[in-house]
Specification:
Layout (H helix, E strand, L loop, with lengths): L10 H15 L6 H16 L5 H15 L4 E5 L1 H6 L1 H11 L3 E3 L6 H13 L5 E2 L5 E2 L9 E2 L9 E3 L5 H9 L3 E5 L6 H5 L2 E3 L3 H17 L11 H19 L3
Parallel strand pairs: 1-2, 1-6, 2-3, 6-7, 7-8
Antiparallel strand pairs: 4-5
Helix pairs in contact: 1-2, 3-9, 3-10, 5-9
The structure holds ligand PTJ.
């Protein structure tokens, strides 16, 4: 890993890049993952690299939805595995939900490497290698799922997802929570709850909210939660921030 001095003003952001590069070198992350990460960075810059109030509310709704799920599953791709292995594992333990490797740029070698990477970080229940079921309506590799995992889940946490599969999962009657820095991506629009935040920050918040909601009794799903309203609020908050930014 390239050494970034902690005093660098963009230390956190540069370290995320290093994790993605290390993921590629380890055969976990796809090369295309670099481009996806760059797109995320650009949105995060506009957002101000912090959790927006609307994203905080979405995370609360996601915590309640995941806590009240009967069979939640956490989908993991090459970027997620490189950036936040410890956090997805912590979440999986808190929710008693399996992790499932599900990748777009599919190779069997990468599925196995991601699984092993998660296991090296302490994961005990990683699905995705079986791929004994298919999500109908999509022709790419994301359709390959485990019957016992995503296929039969009622709530799927699918961060950095593509719109197609999100739509197909919703069509199967599932609820989908996504984490995506782009508030106008198809995934953000289709999901039941879209958290427009960086994956590291979002998972940190999600974990502490789930712990909090567990302590104070099971999460109560906000019946009136509306994903599109939340996305509109996110866009307004970004626009207001940019207007305030001025070029002082
Ligand atoms: O490992 P694979 O083969 O499954 O590939 C994973 C990627 C991410 C390459 C693949 O799913 C892909 O191409 O994704 P997209 O369609 O580029 O969408 C990724 C979305 O995630 C984009 O809308 C980005 O803005 C967003 N994003 C990127 N980095 C982050 C992020 N959102 C939250 N946190 C990030 N760090």
């Amino acid at each position: 890993m390239f050494r970034i001095p902690k005093t660098h003003p963009r230390y956190k952001s540069l370290m995320k890049r290093e994790k993605i590069v290390a993921g590629i070198e380890a055969g976990i992350t796809s090369k295309q993952g670099l481009i996806a990460h760059g797109r995320g960075e650009a949105f995060d810059y506009l957002i101000g690299e912090r959790t927006l109030p609307a994203a905080f509310r979405a995370t609360e709704a996601a915590a309640a939805l995941l806590l009240t799920a009967k069979k939640p599953v956490i989908s993991v791709n090459g970027n997620v595995a490189a950036l936040v292995p410890e956090r997805v594992i912590a979440l999986s333990e808190l929710l008693n939900a399996p992790l499932e490797v599900n990748i777009f740029y599919w190779t069997e070698a990468r599925v196995i490497k991601i699984k092993e990477h998660l296991e090296q970080h302490g994961a005990t229940n990683v699905l995705g290698a079986k791929a004994d079921a298919r999500i109908s309506g999509i022709e790419h590799a994301r359709a390959r799922v485990d019957y016992e995992g995503i296929y039969s889940a009622d709530v799927v946490l699918a961060p950095l997802e593509d719109g197609d599969r999100c739509k197909a999962l919703i069509a199967m009657g599932k609820k989908v929570v996504t984490i995506d820095l782009n508030p106008v991506s198809r995934t953000s629009k289709y999901a039941t709850v879209s958290i427009v935040d960086d994956i590291e920050r979002a998972l940190k918040n999600l974990i502490s909210m789930i712990k909090e909601q567990k302590k104070n009794g099971k999460g109560k799903l906000l019946e009136d939660y509306d994903n599109k309203d939340n996305l509109r609020a996110v866009i307004n908050e970004i626009a207001e921030r940019l207007k305030d930014e001025e070029l002082r």
